[in-house]
Amino acid sequence: MAKRLDIQDLNLHYGKFHAVQDVSLQVHARGVTAFIGPSGCGKSTVLRALNRMHEVIAGARVEGKVLLDGEDVYASNVDPVQVRRTIGMVFQRANPFPTMSIRDNVVAGLKLAGEKNKKHLDEVAERSLRSANLWEEVKDRLNKPGGSLSGGQQQRLCIARAVAVQPDVLLMDEPCSALDPISTLAIEDLIAELKKDYTIVIVTHNMQQAARVSDQTAFFNLRAVGEPGQLVEIEETGKIFSNPNQKATEDYISGRFG
Amino acid sequence: MRTDTADVERPATAPTFQHIGIGRRLKNHTATGLFTVSFLVAVVPLLWVLYTLLSRGLVPMLSADWWSHSFYGLLPNDFGGGIYHALVGTIEQSFVAAVISVPLGVTVGVFLIEYGKDSRLASTATFMVDILSGLPSIVAGLFVYALWITTFGFPKSGFAVALSLVLLMLPLVVRTTETMLRIVPDDLREASYALGVPKWKTILKVVLPTSLSGILTGVMLGLARIMGETAPLLILVGYARSINFNLFSGPMASLPLTIYTERKTPTEAGDARMWGAALTLVLVIMLINLLATLISRLFAVKTK
Ligand SMILES: Nc1ncnc2c1ncn2[C@@H]1O[C@H](COP(=O)(O)OP(=O)(O)OP(=O)(O)O)[C@@H](O)[C@H]1O
Ligand SMILES: [Mg+2]
């Protein structure tokens, strides 16, 4: 189930803009890897490159390799649709499908893949909503549209939707930025639960969160505005937060950044 | 512009909110007046048209036979008869035009927005649609006449009219589809891709349902537009005062053609027929517009 990710010499461009330069790192299976770094340093960009969402943007380009258990997801004979089925994603902005009910949002991945068994879909919906800590709030209005939820509820709906398809790797881009402390804790519990079976990469601006949930942490930075973002270092989380190798990392973590 | 500062109870600081000055009030009233006048100028002619239509067209329309009979066998001075023949023609012709242009137009719109983006083919197609949307209806009629009737040798018919209406409706459908697809946020497409849903399925199950209400509304408005087109009718089909269901042969009436033809009958009865047809046409178009509003409500993305 869980798979390892090997990122080798990744360079990412938006048209002429070189957004991320020479990133190489390993994401361990059955573990949580946190990406931290200042706004605009390319965390989301790297994350989106891992399941081939980067190329969806017009003009965006990828160089380098992303190996999933040794298989290059960018190999010419690999179908990006299959990559995304294997590597799921929760976006920085909540994006529920406005035409679908809450329940249908959660099981959208399965339904659109052709699953018709209503009972099975209902089970998956409940299980996923429970793990995203949303079930109690929506169980009486599963047929209401997804857009009727609050911002934080929508974000948890999106998490439930991503979990419902049971990907091998789950990429989460600031999943808790719109959530209250209780839901945040619930999501962190979910992450702890999921990492028994899945590989998780999480982008977060919350240092405590990175320290709480992750096994290893990657710090990204950019030398100056307009310059490409780079990986400064990736280390075991405990080490990053107690004794990082680079001064830049220490400055950032201790709030002396900028 | 402060008043009664003499009040000793008040603190000596300036009030946060100042009273609205005379100048502001004056400007406000002038603007309100201007808006009211422009509104009247715009609405009066409209009401006038409606009044004229109703005062002249309502009497013939109220006769029992109006919705079920044709003008068949009526002499120039005979009152009575009905509009059924023209209604059949208008509905059949525009319905067939819609059946052809909606799938075609939606497909082109989807291609342009979802697949074409910056490709050569897409920019050419957009250019063609631009030209087509400015095409005068008489030219559309002439074109179909030259191609369908002169070159291919088919007879004049209601279907030829439908073909010319396709030329007029197609750009409307393409445009609406383009506009409506463009306002679907990319976030939704990405959400779907990230679940491992292929692009075509994303378009079919996520993007199109999200924009369905807008596209359908546009289609209905396009339909309302082509129902009143007259020029192609004059070229492509003969007028019949009897009922003809067959789009492919024989002369066939329609509401605009009936108005045009009956105008040539210089009698009071002819006048009544003409105005009756005119009122009927306006009613039909209003009905379609109403339906468009209804559809847009019915299929709108729900938030509650
Ligand atoms: N769609 C896009 N088109 C062009 N440039 C983009 C696009 N998305 C991001 N960028 C640029 O790429 C760089 C990295 O952006 P990215 O979104 O990866 O930053 P981030 O580290 O996720 O920041 P944040 O913490 O604010 O989310 C930024 O300079 C940004 O302006
Ligand atoms: Mg980001």
TrEMBL record, chain A:
Q: Does the keyword Membrane apply?
A: yes
An example GO biological process term is: phosphate ion transmembrane transport
Q: Which GO terms describe its cellular component?
A: plasma membrane
UniProt xrefs under InterPro entries:
AAA+_ATPase (IPR003593), ABC_transporter-like_ATP-bd (IPR003439), ABC_transporter-like_CS (IPR017871), P-loop_NTPase (IPR027417), PstB-like (IPR005670)
| Signal peptide per UniProt | none
The membrane topology term of the UniProt record is: Peripheral membrane protein
The primary location reported for this protein is: membrane
The ABC transporter domain covers 5-247
Protein's cellular compartments? Cell inner membrane
Cross-referenced CDD domains, in alphabetical order? Answer: ABC_PstB_phosphate_transporter
What is the name of this protein? Answer: Phosphate transport system ATP-binding protein
Q: Which residues form a coiled coil?
A: none
What the protein does? Part of the ABC transporter complex PstSACB involved in phosphate import. Responsible for energy coupling to the transport system.
TrEMBL record, chain B:
Coarse class of the protein's main subcellular location: membrane
Can you name this protein?
A: Phosphate transport system permease protein PstA
Give GO MF terms, alphabetically: phosphate transmembrane transporter activity
List the PANTHER family hit by this protein, alphabetically. PHOSPHATE TRANSPORT SYSTEM PERMEASE PROTEIN PSTA (PTHR42922:SF1)
Q: Could you tell me the superkingdom of the organism this chain comes from? A: Bacteria
GO BP: any one term: phosphate ion transmembrane transport
- Is Transport among the key words of this record? yes
Compartments, as annotated in UniProt: Cell membrane
Under the cellular component aspect of Gene Ontology, which terms does the record hold? plasma membrane
Q: Kindly indicate where the leader peptide sits in this chain.
A: none
Q: Keyword annotations for this protein?
A: Cell membrane, Membrane, Phosphate transport, Transmembrane, Transmembrane helix, Transport
- Family stated for the protein in its record: Belongs to the binding-protein-dependent transport system permease family. CysTW subfamily.
Q: What NCBIfam families has UniProt attached to this entry?
A: 3a0107s02c
Please provide an example of a Pfam family that matches this protein in its UniProt record. Answer: BPD_transp_1
Topology term for the membrane: Multi-pass membrane protein
TM ranges: 34-54, 95-115, 127-148, 154-174, 206-227, 274-300
- Known function: Part of the binding-protein-dependent transport system for phosphate; probably responsible for the translocation of the substrate across the membrane.
ABC transmembrane type-1 domain ranges (all copies)? 87-296
